[in-house]
């Protein structure tokens, strides 16, 4: 699909997600562990570890929204989950994710090693690939369809999705809302955002982004989250141009009575 002119808003539905190249994306972003991702993993593993310091009373279901070609959010949920849903819209990314379920590629081991610096990951009673194969299910779907599954998952992640699928601030905020509404009250979550992104390539194709900073991220979380924090990570010149940093957010979904209706 031809991109619209710079003066127009490009919505999620305008984008040719079938053109996303997951192999090129992994090669550029995840073939080697970047310092920012290591820092994100540190934050997320400790947040989830603290939340589940008391064992959960029942089965735990996790969801990674807009999983794309990134396995480390799912790996971060692995110790606690009986089932993890990888929700993804791009057919090419769905195929990539499905190819990773039985035995994910060796480059993801370096991400798991960072997680294992928290004892709960290192104490996993089975090989992480075997656990991944047992609990992970890939599901083709649109983030906005989560409105039909409110409160379904016990924990969740959404990494570089809401701001990386549209130029619209309205769609960005709606994406965050749909993600958080899909979680059960009190469920722990972690999310990451590219700060002031101007868009990005995945292979030969360029994809849109919404220009957001910490204030926009904070405002999108306030109605649906509690006990949450955000932090900004400085941009790495080695990764790519066109953004000023990363924003990580972590916390818990509001109780049902605190969440606005409509």
UniProtKB/TrEMBL annotation:
UniProt GO molecular function: methyltransferase activity
Keyword S-adenosyl-L-methionine: yes
Listed InterPro entries: NNMT_TEMT_trans, SAM-dependent_MTases_sf
Entry keywords, A to Z: Methyltransferase, S-adenosyl-L-methionine, Transferase
UniProt GO BP: methylation
NCBIfam families registered for this protein in UniProt: SCO2525_fam
Alphabetized PANTHER family for the sequence: NICOTINAMIDE N-METHYLTRANSFERASE (PTHR10867:SF17), NNMT/PNMT/TEMT FAMILY MEMBER (PTHR10867)
Name the record gives this protein: SCO2525 family SAM-dependent methyltransferase
């Amino acid at each position: 699909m031809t991109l619209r002119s710079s003066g127009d808003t490009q919505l999620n539905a305008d984008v040719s997600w079938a053109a996303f190249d997951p192999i090129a994306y992994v090669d550029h972003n995840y073939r080697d562990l970047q310092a920012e991702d290591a820092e994100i993993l540190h934050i997320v593993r400790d947040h989830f570890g603290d939340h589940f310091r008391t064992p959960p009373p029942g089965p735990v279901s996790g969801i990674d929204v807009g999983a794309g070609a990134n396995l480390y959010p799912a790996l971060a949920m692995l110790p606690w989950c009986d089932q993890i849903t990888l929700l993804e819209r791009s057919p090419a990314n769905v195929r990539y994710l499905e190819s990773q379920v039985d035995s994910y590629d060796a480059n993801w081991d370096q991400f798991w090693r960072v997680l294992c610096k928290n004892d709960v990951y290192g104490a996993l009673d089975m090989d992480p690939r075997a656990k991944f194969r047992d609990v992970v299910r890939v599901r083709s779907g649109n983030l906005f369809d989560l409105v039909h599954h409110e409160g379904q998952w016990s924990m969740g992640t959404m990494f570089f999705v809401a701001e990386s699928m549209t130029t619209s601030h309205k769609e960005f905020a709606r994406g965050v809302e749909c993600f958080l509404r899909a979680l059960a009250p009190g469920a722990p979550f972690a999310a990451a955002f590219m700060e002031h992104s101007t868009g990005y390539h995945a292979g030969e194709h360029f994809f849109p982004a919404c220009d957001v900073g910490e204030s926009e991220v904070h405002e999108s979380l306030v109605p649906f989250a509690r006990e949450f924090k955000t932090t900004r990570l400085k941009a790495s010149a080695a990764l790519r141009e066109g953004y000023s940093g990363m924003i990580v957010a972590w916390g818990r979904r509001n109780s049902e009575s605190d969440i606005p209706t409509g």
